[in-house]
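pls ignore typos typing on phone
iron/sulfur cluster + seq
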Amino acid sequence: MILERLFGDVNPLVLEVLERALGGAELSVDDAVLLLETGGADLQALMRAADVARREDVGDDISFVVCRNMNFTNVCYVGCSFCGFARHKDEADAYDHPMEELIEKGREAVARGATEFCIQAGIHPNKDHTHYHEVLTTLKEHFPQVHIHAFSPEEMDWGHRKSGMELADYLRWLVDAGLGTMPGTAAEILDDEIRQTISPRKLGRDRWIEIVEAAHSIGLNSTSTLMYGHIETARHVAEHLALLREIQKRTGGFTEFVPLGYIHERNTLFNHLGARPGASVSEDLKLVAVSRLFLRPWIPNIQVSWVKMGPKVAQVSLMAGANDFGGTLMEESISRESGSQYGENLPPEQMRRLIREIGRTPVERSTTYEVLRRFDDPAADPPSLEPERPQELSGPARWRLREGDSDPLKVHAAG
Ligand code: SF4
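k done
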């Protein structure tokens, strides 16, 4: 009776697809399009089904990785229309960090518990493959224990073309210098018609596939990503997911899938080229839920991007098919430059709180999803390693703590 009231108005076609997905059948592109266009009760049924699939696939833990982003230069002339990060080298806020600065950032990150450096940057016209190599050897020399997750396929394309080497040899040369895994970014939507509008000078679909498959073939694993909420349709998304699933069947080299919502405020794609103003919350949830059902069992880890969707929508997405909270980041700037308002850093203690608020267990993982620490008991949590910052309070001054006070209500209520 109650089930009839809860699910009686769900489209029977949607129910049939969900039933097949939960039964372990592989969904088609048409199935994914149907699910991506759901709303109302259909969307709620989709989220519930994806949550059940998530529990069956990977259990109830929610993982995160303690990492630091390092964007060593924002100089880039590729000109992607969705990018608010790139600068011309003569602009006042262009930067190109020397190695000493990267080492200093690395030192600070390790003191804050980082196990990973995530390194991506602009395509600086005056740099070549030797610079990427030097970044790796320098950081590895100082921090041999830290995993280096670096260089998008766009950066790999640039470095490889400069190097004159065979692609697999070039990638192996970087692995020998300390590269651990590769971000599967620069994918956006793997459709050349869409790419022609959003990033006409970026590597094309086939080159992205070539680089990712070459990486996987030498044991260099990568993430997989998609950018949604701009000019793409549900079919573009479904075909992109199908392509990732096919690559994964061939190589097994994707560690996870990360849907990345487009941030629109400060870039050309929205302001001049007519893109949608990013994804709605329901699109965020659908992307996560459909990814879970469509990519199972090939890609078991579905990650939320708290930078793009914000920690609260990320929490809901973790109840709709996702199982990974991503990285703490420490210094996020690429999304911020496009208008994201969700901050640059989500410390481990906040990750743990957000995960526990939805009744799940936080787990710190390595880049490649080995469990490093479980946090079953909040009372046994380690102390924060974050640098102390002065707290900014507002409200009537008489209600605020003064030096040496412990209880503002008792001390100053009458003051
Ligand atoms: S997205 Fe990357 S490649 Fe494109 S303009 Fe921005 S920094 Fe350059």
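The CA atoms of residues 67 and 98 lie 20 Å apart. The pocket of iron/sulfur cluster is lined by residues 76, 78-80, 83, 85-86, 122-123, 154, 199, 202 (CB under 6 Å). more later
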